[in-house]
Specification:
851 residues; alpha/beta; Rossmann fold; 4 domains; 10-stranded mixed β-sheet; 28 strands; 40% helix; 18% strand; globular
Length: 851
């Protein structure tokens, strides 16, 4: 029968226990072990059955159990303690941001298509979402005035299960929004706050839910409401829908709808951070709002919007970027573009390399780069990869000056460290590891931990991982219809004392999950050595349309079924935050084998570090920065190969060699008391060196210092003087583009004697014809540095040349002294760039004139 009326039933919680609901609706509980212990204490089995969801727990607990809790004095004291701690955290105004930034507290906004905050809120698929979730948690810890914006997916990302042959199957569970820690956003009269976007000529209504992440609100948009058509209700149904038509609707709802929702809620962020290009339409919507509110032209509004925008790219290959054919953009933005007062060709040009190339698709990353003042990759190596991907957007600008920086990703340590290890750190390191995770002196305390205690703690976690893997495998086999004998064997797989390697991630082919299986017989010998056994636990999902990734999973499952391998290799299905947490808390070695430069950063390997795990990885992403022989192992030395089959052969051999000659012998080398002292020393060195660097507290601080505050300052400058600065800046930029072709470096002269020594100076002069531009419009520079065999200047430096006050016949004379800082072959060139006085980084305009 069709539903006539719908309503929601909330649990009836006794008054003295109502703080439980207060705690449950703020996700601080998912990184506060005191609260986790409290909810586990309610009902341990229910905690596990609900995927650690306190909201669902409170709706399932019987009234009799509530009565028992009221009479449990220890529980009530625990509740009071956790509640006091929670309220003190929320009310604390002595945060890092308050101490660091003494001015007013402008709001920042962080947009992301997915959010990995907790396993009970399934609106994430992988590393991008987990990174966004950890970002919000550290923003909360640091007191950053920030709001997150995303989509609340009805079905989220798929759940994975394997058939008897090991082939991945997918299913989608429906999220009941009243059983997860979200609240509907309502106005003063209790009505839902809604906004609309126009899609193909029809209005689509969007409502908003909010998730409290410590001190930070996360706004989640939802189109699954009765007022919308059945088709439009599906826009927020699944994460990363392959259908191109549905994908652009999602990105319009996220970018444009997200901006409108912030406005409807009275929130006015100053700096907007786009986490990948999915939300890039927000930049255009922001310009449109400024046009209407400030009476600016589109180009003027665009410059103001751009000044307060930051874009982070996570993608190392062009194929990973969302692109839309021109006809799709035209269908969805025809009316929108008219309201901006610009033509469709101009709009399409914002997302193209060649604006007038009719066949070129509209690229969301290009749009985000064009509309952001600051662009960054997510590791030092990924910065170089991104510069190679996008260099053609900046003409002849030197590679090392392409305006793409980097902020290496990190993890939110309290969210990923085990309860056992957290207690150990509390005892010997102090609470500084939570309150000041970037403080190197705090982590020096790791050396105080007795080897025996650290090892026992780690062994407990390995034992729990093995127990979890056994339960998971038994459940998988039962679902596949396995017999009693197979289920009994599943309860005995793996060895709680054996060297345990973990490999878990998205099963994209470039991550090479099967590299370890290149030589199966050699691997079997390593795994089945009776004196030094080794075991591997795999987990991960392939995208539903990625059959190559699914074949990798099937190959691993088949290998695990071979004689002698059942006890040594396990694949755990339905990889999520629960599986990830068991793995990173319990493995001895975390294995990562991507094709180099294809892993933008990677954070899974960072998660094992505070838990005492060690990394074995290709020198890619974060490991390229983090690796030293004292903290882990590197597969290869960062070589590049043109033949991928040969590369797989070489690197698999290197992997086997490391296991056979270094890793396995080190793990099983024990002192008289049975402790692997050298291994433990490596664990401590890894924790001491890497924890204070590869965490999201450091990452968020870098974003604030390097991007947010400079963007805040530039945005304020353009808004100043009743928007006169914005109008002048837009006019100046238009004048630059119009007059750039008329610039000419007429003559140059450098007084090179042939006897230059380190410390000396070379006088340089240049005669410049500025055409229709003025001296204050440009900066003339002497660019110098070491030259390579192709006579190119590498990693050059620039010295500004000063103009003489009086030009002669329209020719301006510029002078500079170029320092001889190092010996060797040096190169010198002259160039003109937009005025460095008028803009912080003029190279982002892509305008440069060389002699």
């Amino acid at each position: 029968m069709k539903t006539i009326l719908s309503f929601n039933v909330r649990p009836s919680i006794p008054d003295k226990l109502t703080p439980l609901a207060e705690l449950a609706f703020n996700l601080l509980w998912c990184w506060d072990h005191e609260q986790i212990d409290l909810f586990r204490r309610l009902d341990e089995d229910l905690w596990e059955r609900t995927s650690h969801n306190p909201i669902m727990m409170l709706s399932r607990i019987s009234q009799d159990r509530f009565k028992e809790l009221l009479e449990d004095e220890a529980f009530m004291e625990h509740l009071a303690r956790a509640t006091t701690r929670f309220r003190e955290y929320i009310a604390n105004d002595r945060t890092w941001y308050k101490k660091f930034y003494s001015g007013s507290a402008p709001l920042f906004a962080y947009f992301s298509a997915e959010w990995g905050l907790t396993e009970s809120l399934r609106i994430y698929s992988g590393g991008l979402g987990i990174l966004a979730g950890d970002f919000l948690k550290s923003a909360s810890d640091l007191g950053l005035p920030l709001v997150g914006v995303g989509l609340l997916y009805q079905e989220g990302y798929f759940r994975q299960y394997l058939n008897a042959d090991g082939w991945q199957q997918e299913r989608y569970d429906v999220n009941d929004f009243f059983d997860i820690p979200v609240k509907a956003k309502t106005d003063s009269r209790g009505n839902p706050v809604t906004v609309t976007v126009k899609l193909n000529g029809r209005d689509v209504l969007i409502r908003c839910w909010t998730v409290d992440v410590g001190r930070v609100p996360l706004l989640l948009l939802d189109t699954n409401i009765p007022e919308n058509t059945a088709e439009d209700r599906k826009i927020t149904s699944q994460l990363y829908i392959a259908d191109i038509d549905m994908r652009i609707r999602q990105e319009i709802v996220l970018g444009i709808g997200g901006m409108r929702m912030l406005k409807a809620l009275g929130l006015e962020p100053v700096v907007y951070h786009m986490n990948e290009g999915h939300s890039a339409f927000l930049a255009i919507e922001r310009a449109g709002q400024l046009m209407r509110e400030k009476h600016l032209s589109f180009e003027e509004a665009r410059e103001v919007a751009r000044s307060g925008s930051v874009f982070t790219t996570h993608t190392p290959v062009p194929a990973g970027i969302d692109e839309f054919p021109a006809w799709v953009i035209e269908a969805y933005f025809r009316d929108y573009v008219q309201n901006l007062g610009i033509g469709m060709d101009e709009f399409l040009g914002m997302g193209r390399l060649n604006p007038r190339q009719a066949g070129e698709p509209f690229n969301m990353a290009r749009l985000a780069i064009n509309e952001a003042a600051y662009v960054n990759g997510v590791s030092r190596l990924h910065m170089d990869v991104s510069r190679k991907m996008w260099w053609n957007m900046w003409g002849e600008i030197p590679f090392d000056e392409i305006p793409i920086g980097y902020v290496t990703n990190g993890i939110h340590i309290p969210s990923w460290v085990s309860h056992d290890m957290a207690s150990l750190l509390d005892r010997y390191v102090g609470r500084g590891w939570v309150d000041r995770p970037t403080d190197q002196t705090v982590w020096e305390g790791v050396w105080k931990i007795p080897d025996s205690e650290l090892w026992r703690t780690h062994e407990r976690r390995r034992e729990r991982l093995v127990a979890f893997a056994r339960r998971s495998l038994a459940r998988q086999l039962k679902d596949q219809g396995a017999g009693r004998e197979a289920l009994k064997k599943a309860e005995e797989v793996l060895d709680p004392g054996a060297l345990t390697i973990g490999f878990a991630r998205r099963f994209a082919t470039y991550k090479r999950a099967t590299l370890l299986l290149t030589d199966p017989e050699r691997l079997k010998r390593i795994l089945t050595n009776p004196d030094c056994p080794v075991q591997i636990i795999f987990a991960g999902k392939a995208h539903p349309s990625d059959n190559h990734g699914k074949e990798f999973i099937r190959k691993i499952v088949h290998f695990a079924k071979q004689e002698g391998m059942r006890d040594r290799v396990v694949f755990i299905e339905d990889y999520d935050m629960v599986v990830s947490r068991y793995l990173v808390e319990g493995v001895d070695v975390w294995l990562n084998t991507p094709l180099r430069t294809m892993e933008a950063s990677g954070t899974s390997g960072m998660k094992v570090v505070p838990n005492g795990g060690l990394n074995l990885s290709v020198l890619d992403g974060w490991w390229d920065e983090a690796y030293t022989p004292e903290v882990g192992w590197a597969i290869g030395r960062g070589e590049d190969y043109s033949d991928k089959d040969y590369q797989n052969q070489v690197e698999s051999n290197a992997l086997y060699h490391l296991l056979e000659t270094e890793i396995v012998p080190l793990f099983y080398s024990r002192s008289r008391d049975g402790l692997p002292r050298d291994w433990i020393r490596m664990m401590k060195q890894s924790m001491r060196s890497l924890c204070p660097v590869f965490n999201t507290d450091r990452m968020v601080k870098e974003y604030v210092r390097s991007f947010y505050l400079p963007a805040l300052e530039e945005h304020a400058r353009l808004l100043g003087d009743d928007l006169k600065s914005a109008k002048e800046f837009a006019a100046w930029k238009a004048r630059l583009h119009a007059g750039w072709g008329g610039l000419e470096i007429a003559a140059t002269d450098a007084e090179i004697t042939g006897n230059e020594k380190v410390g000396s100076m070379v006088p340089v002069t240049a005669r410049i014809k500025l055409g229709g531009l003025a001296p204050e419009d440009v900066t003339v520079e002497a660019y110098y540095g070491q030259i390579d065999k192709a006579r190119r200047i590498r990693n050059g430096k620039a010295v500004e040349m000063k103009p003489d006050p009086c030009p002669s016949d329209g020719v301006h004379l510029y002078r500079a002294m170029v320092p001889c800082e190092e010996s060797g072959s040096r190169g010198l060139a002259l160039r003109i760039v937009p005025s460095r006085i008028k803009v912080s980084n003029p190279l982002r305009f892509g305008l440069i004139k060389w002699m």
